[in-house]
Amino acid sequence: MLQIKQLSKTFNRGTENEIRVFDKFNLKIEANKCTAIIGPNGCGKSTLLNIIGGSIMSDAGEIHLNGKNIAQLKEEERAIYIGRVYQDPSMGVSPSLTILENMSLADKKGEKFSLKRLIKKKEIDRYIELLKSLDLGLENKLNTKVKYLSGGQRQSLSLIMAAMKHPDLLLLDEHTAALDPKTSNVIMKKTKELIDKYAITTIMISHNMKDAIDYSDRIIMLDEGKIVLDKPSVEVTERELIEIYRKKLEFQIISA
Amino acid sequence: MNSLVMTSIEQGLIFAVLSIGVFITYKVLDIADLSVEGTFPMGAFVFAKLISMGVDPITSTLSAFFFGTLAGLMTATLFIKLKIQPLLAGILTMTTLYSVNLRINGRANIPLFNYDSIYNIGPAIIVLMIIVLIIKIGLDEFLKTEIGYLLLATGDNETLVKSLGVNSNKYKVIGLMLANGFVGLSGALMAQMQGFADITMGSSIIVVALASIIIGDTIKKSSNKLKGTTRAILGAISYKIIGGIAIDLGLSPTDLKAISAIIVIVFIAYNNFSSELLGSKKAKGGKEHVTDKATI
């Protein structure tokens, strides 16, 4: 379970460009569920993910992951508990290394790296099984450098690599936004299968409202750093979400 | 064997050690480290100091490697701890080393003809081939280890390394230290070969190393089998042979630096130009996370 308490974050503090993204923000994410966070640009969803992941430090507040406060841990220290898949398919992999080398690195996550050989022959069958589950034929390309894979293949590999050590929390940062609709659908289905199979607590950011409804258990809509909607996904319709966006847009036009 | 070719190969093997060092920073870590311009003469001056104090040639040569790693540590500290851009951090180390190098012996040029050298062990070409082979095999084996792969991944995508629960800065330090160690060693080998250590011997050495790496990259370009270390060695030897032929044909040795620079300019411009023609822009948001490297 993830619990965020009294989280505050202000960018460019003390300057004319000061932006207060969160002010004493609270959120509780249930264990083993997929929570989708949606909202217009600038609502704070990416900042929230970056603060949880540790690439941005919060000004104040606590982040408890399974009872442990991780708010003060460095990005690499909390990465041991957290898996993350980025929008850019190249960010979760090492493009110049092969699929096998990438998976071997991911398999060492959170462990001590030594002068032993990285590639361990006895693990290869396990990697092949994992890759087979993606159904993209990657198991036959173990020695292919990742930079030669398509965006969808690379993102699938990122997903497997992020999830293979069963992290306490999986962060999906608009991870299908850079893909074409067909590939995006395939990746979303694979994501759902993985999350369900390993029962990983997941936070997914998406601009695709249909995906958010179809693939999550709960939907949270953020606006200006505040929760404006929080419902089980089965109770939310796409029309309802669009309506909130429309009202927000009208309000902005009138204010302008 | 033709003495010109022989000398070119010998010097090429010395530059191979230099190129392997620069390969680590430039190709593996994706950092343009200029501190090597100070580390190369430092290796020569450390050797000169120790050999003149009566230390044996092997220990003196190995000490050049050790002091080179310290120079790498200085650049890494400026870059990582003090957040100085790597290019500037390298320039600052290089500038500092200029004074340090002059302090080591108190003079800008130290003749070494009267002292023993590592080449007294056997024919220079054999001694150098053994040294280069040990470094190549050692580095190749190191890059197959868990730590070695982290070094490769750090230059390729730092975000991934952090996501593995690892502090990527540690591997930049290791890479910079190792690279400058090899460059220092190369400087000591060169000083023994030419019979003197000189304060100017590091001038533009980075361009020579880059030209060697670039020539090495063009050899069997599409082959995945040829490792980066092999390419660096072949590139350095080819570079010296090309240079030797150019001088034999009447070109002044002073023109060689311009030729090295032109090789680097043409190759990098060609790479930039061809990628524009193919329209293969970097992925959105990829920035420095995505690099297109030759075989490592």
The whole-angstrom Rg of chain A is 19 Å
Amino- and carboxy-terminal Cα gap of chain B: 33 Å
Average pLDDT, all residues of chain A: 91
CATH architecture of chain A: 3-Layer(aba) Sandwich
* Alpha-beta content class of chain A: alpha/beta
Number of helices of chain A: 8
Oligomer: heterodimer
Task: For the largest sheet of chain A, list the strands in their spatial order.
Answer: 6-7-8-3-9-10
Look at the structure and name the CATH superfamily of chain A: P-loop containing nucleotide triphosphate hydrolases
Main beta sheet strand tally, sense and closure of chain B: 2 strands, antiparallel
Give the CATH architecture of chain B.
Orthogonal Bundle
> What global shape of chain A is seen?
globular
The percent range for strand residues of chain B is under 5%
* Total count of domains of chain A: 1
Q: What string gives the helices and strands of chain A in order?
A: EEEHEEHEHHHEHEHEEH
**Number of H/I helices of chain B:** 11
